[in-house]
UniProtKB/TrEMBL annotation:
Superkingdom: Bacteria
Pfam families: AAA_31 (PF13614)
Name used for this protein in its record: ParA family protein
Family annotation (Gene3D superfamilies): P-loop containing nucleotide triphosphate hydrolases
Residues annotated as domain AAA: 1-200
Amino acid sequence: MKSIAFFNNKGGVGKTSLVYHLAWMYADLGLSVVAADFDPQANLTTMFLEENELIEFWEKDRHARTIYGAFEPLLEGTGDIAAPHTVEVSPGLNLLVGDIALSSAEGDLASEWSNCLDGRPRAFRVISALWRMASLASEQAEANVVLIDVGPNLGPLNRSALVAAEDVIIPLGPDLFSLQGLRNLGPTLIDWRRQWQERLEQKPASLQDYPLPAASMTPSGYIVLQHAVRFDRPVKAYGLWMQRIPLEYRSSILRLEAESDEITTDTDPHCLKNLKHYRSLMPLAQEARKPIFFLKPADGAIGGHMQSVRECYNDFRDLARRIADRVGLTLPLQTRASETELTP
């Protein structure tokens, strides 16, 4: 299982929309995908499912088929995690359903992190629970990749979610707050990775054959989202912040010395993509319950909108390929029908 987390402790950069569109794109490119909603706000789940479907999962405190429902037996002390339920949104695309109740696990995840140092078996079961649920969901769906969406904070829940990730990709906005987020995130990832390795050394004998994550949390690049464009260039206010992103990523995330102060997001090999803002198409996509790049004239995408739809498809196809190349994910060689149709 290849697991990729999309994480920035600064909210509002479009992270969940990014995961949603990439999940659809990888499925369109021929992979089997699990989208894991580890954010208690469950925004990814609401993007995938209709309201009547959400009622079935969340009404009257029924959690049996959500991520929390799989976690519940372990939290309540009645057993280990249950087999996670996934929803097949489309052929090759499965959702591990989020749940606002997942936030109630924060206390256990905080205390059991410390208890791992004492070699307590339950502590390791709790901290590895999200990783094990993602692994089981991946096995059930025969998935090639798990895309993990998490909330914008540095709390115990996200720490356990990041433990489940082999690779971490950072979505950024071209603003001061995203740069500050990089400064916070870099040392935190280093600490979490180191602390988990220390805890693995204390794994009790009773768990020697028990599967636990390596938690490599490898920084695999960043994506700049939601910048305004005029004449194919970011507007000046955004451009000033974009100039600072490459050096900040190197310094805060990779702990590298600056090679040159002239590097830009367009030339930085760590920048996976500068994604344009498709603001005018998002309401149409939300209404149609599909990604922007699958919109049709029947959905209201007419005239110049269809050119933007084609551009969006090509942008996300290119991004998906770059991420796959960066993390060692093999894409099928065949070209999908929709890829042929949307290539100019």
